[in-house]
Amino acid sequence: MCDVHTWKCQRVGKWLKRAGFPQYIQPFTQEHRIDGMALLSLTEMDLRSPPLELKVLGDIKRLMLAIRKLQRENQYHLALTQRLENGTRTLRYREFMQGNGSDFAESDGFTHSDDSSSENRVYVPTFKPEIWKTVISFIYVFLVFLATAFVMVIVHDRVPDREKYPPLPDLFLDSVPRIPWAFVMCEITGLVLCAIWCIVLLLHKHRFILMRRMFALTGTVFMLRCLTMLMTSLSVPGDHLECSGKLYGDFWTRLHRAFEIWSGLGMTMTGVHTCGDYMFSGHTVVLTLLNHFITEYTPRNMYTLHISSWVMNLFGIFFILAAHEHYSIDVFIAFYISSRLFLYYHTLANNRVLRHGDKDRTRAWFPLFSFFESEVDGIVPNEYEWPFPIPSIFMENEEHDSEENDM
């Protein structure tokens, strides 16, 4: 994706030449000094009206199509330009929110010039990395995973006797025969989604915000899973599962087993086999959250990636059920809770009215959200960068290569 907002007038001229409009280089770049930001803000009315006043209808339409393509590829910077051009409207919005009891501080993204007139105040979103908060969120999910592993050991000791409590009736499990290799395929699917998400994190400009959100959401869902596993113990979903309770009576034995589960990430591929952790499916949680994070933080026009991510999510869920490792209700609840919590979190994070309309209520019901998102103002744009220093040998041709890829 080309950073059109950084273009100088000369770069705009080169773009016009490659787009097939060399006749407009002089009026655009020399007479009217249109740079990258100005190019992004052009409309068809600007092309038709003075001072540009283009006369050829076909050129107007074709040039506008090319400009709209650039606008689609640079939506964030285009939106930022529009916000800066509408400072008065933003100020009225802020005054409206203050009049309704919302507590907006001057540091919440509102800046103004030396002139104290309200006409000069505009809203500019800020995205601070806040690495220390990301470290805290990692510690949070780390401790939750340890607690989850220990709870899994406890519920294994409480698993109901299969002879006294046979598998519960389940529409899917009763209709579809068990596929022995399906659960391994589910975990392979999860590893593929995890690899894609790691690449997105590596290249995303706001990677620390993304990691913070991932750790916060994952930790919260798995903490809820700990509670549901402790509250209700379901019978094993299939006769193929060899589960016997009262295996880890000693505390240190339980702790050692919990460490084995934690270090093996709870995966069958690493030799971890557990029983009793049915309400609800942890594998479904991981698949669903990975899918939602991938589709949310990659460009909207990457349709193949998004479809593939959803297909892997759904097929992973099918493999869990086909392996008869969970009841259908376990998988359904896991998918619903994970997807809804992801959507609720991002709806609050992306909507200033919801987030600032009642700060006290948000802080009471979502304390982690209020802490982690306090300095994230607005929708996080999908911008990408190479995280490592580029060797100087490649720097000479960087601008030339970027110009060739603009078309």
Explain what this protein looks like in three dimensions.
With 407 residues, the protein is mainly α. Helices cover 61% and strands 1% of the residues. It is built from 20 helices and 2 strands. Helix 8 packs across helix 12 (251-263), helix 13 runs antiparallel to helix 14 and helix 13 (282-296) runs parallel beside helix 15 (328-350). It is elongated, with a radius of gyration of 27 Å. It starts with 8 loop residues before the first helix and ends with a helix.
Q: In a nutshell, what does this entry contain?
A:
The chain has 407 residues and is mainly alpha-helical.
What is the secondary structure topology, with strand pairs?
Blueprint: H1 9-19, H2 25-31, H3 36-40, H4 44-48, H5 57-73, H6 75-85, H7 87-99, E1 110-111, E2 122-123, H8 131-157, H9 171-175, H10 182-203, H11 207-231, H12 251-263, H13 282-296, H14 303-322, H15 328-350, H16 352-357, H17 359-365, H18 367-372, H19 392-395, H20 398-404
Antiparallel strand pairs: 1-2
Helix pairs in contact: 1-2, 8-11, 8-12, 10-11, 10-13, 10-14, 11-13, 13-14, 13-15
